Amino acid sequence: MANSIRISLSKRQLSLLSNGKVVRTYPIGVGKIATRTPTGSFTIVSKVPNPGRRPGGPRTVYGDYWMGLSRKGYGIHGTNNEASIGKYVSHGCIRMHNKDVVNLASRVGVGTKVQIVP
């Protein structure tokens, strides 16, 4: 199965695709005007479960999972701020409900293609 991810910033929606067909969509929060989420083609370069449960880790920022993108400093991660989903609120990262980011992380691996469109 060849999975990929397409993110629509205007819809604030992440779509998981399998062989080019949408199999699941998730609501997301994206970068605010001053710190916009970058558009373009990226790949997932790292996956870290429970990044905030490590000593000194900001769980409220990264939630239950972090998937780093090939654009340094940007990633797809969970959040404990449920109200931020569906809004332009982040510093450029893609925010997801914790249950959704854990589900997505179980379906994609390092090297998965990520397309971010306006």
Automatic annotation (TrEMBL):
Species of origin: Tumebacillus flagellatus
GO CC aspect terms: extracellular region
Pathway(s) annotated for this protein in UniProt: Cell wall biogenesis; peptidoglycan biosynthesis
Sample GO molecular function, one term: peptidoglycan L,D-transpeptidase activity
Matches recorded under Gene3D superfamilies: L,D-transpeptidase catalytic domain-like
The L,D-TPase catalytic domain, residue ranges: 3-117
Keyword tags: Cell shape, Cell wall biogenesis/degradation, Glycosyltransferase, Hydrolase, Peptidoglycan synthesis, Transferase
Name assigned to this protein: L,D-TPase catalytic domain-containing protein
